[in-house]
Hints:
Elements: E1 11-13, H1 27-41, H2 70-94, E2 103-105, E3 109-112, E4 115-118, E5 124-126, E6 131-134, H3 137-145, H4 151-170, H5 187-206, H6 223-233, H7 236-244, H8 257-270
Parallel strand pairs: 1-2, 2-6
Antiparallel strand pairs: 3-4, 5-6
Helix pairs in contact: 1-7, 2-4, 4-5, 4-6, 5-8, 6-8
Amino acid sequence: xxxxxxxxxxxxxxxxxxxGFGVAHLGIGGFLILLVLSWASGTNLFSxxxxxxxxxxxSVGTSGRAASSPAExxxxxxxxxxxxxxxxxxxxxxxxxxxxxxxxLFRDAIQSGCGSAQSATGPFYCPQDGxxxxxxxxxxxxxxxxxxxxDFAQAYVITHELGHHVQNLLGLNEGASGDRRTGxxxxxxxxxxxxxxxxxxxxxxxxxxxxxxxxxxxxxxxDMEEGLRAAAAIGDDRLQKMATGRVMPDRFTHGSxxxxxxxxxxxxxxGDPRSCGTSAATxx
Length: 284
């Protein structure tokens, strides 16, 4: 994936203002299980340990940027480039209905408009404040523990969360709030799959030739496969099987690997938000 650094206008860098929590005693295996289950369920299971991990630790007491490696700073630039590019696309497609948001980067824990959140929850969008929250450490887990490396895999995660922002702006999530169903057939799972499709719509846009010369994000050969691999890696059935050894469709929150791949691929192939199951996301 080709992109130009320096586009950080859509990023709120809170890495130096984030708190931490201690989980070293869990061991990597125990941490991974809790991480996967917390992310899959949307529930912070670290709070059940009774070890003081249920709430963010005190702020580290710094107001500036936290110490960071060159590799992490390059990752920040990538997040900024993808976020700007995706939001530029949605502004073109939706016109005045689209309102730009921020991706807030944090470490370990943060206070969002939806309450306290920790890295174990994974990347998330908060409709109350309209902001995407991301701990860059998730990308390490995505690559090393879940088997989905690559910059386009990371871009898929970012644009999926921005897809939730689009849903919020268009009121597409209002109907889901009254649906009491849970599991694979719930409205909340349908929203997640639609956000996958919206991520694919951006992927289609980024695959068009000549974008790199214009300073925009440009996909390389093989990037689509990276995105599909990421979608498959974080399907509910795969995460549940990794963590517990069995699949529980009644506890699905994001859809199966096959569903996530299919909806992401639909957006990638069509480039049309209307193919994502809504007539509200029409181009102007």
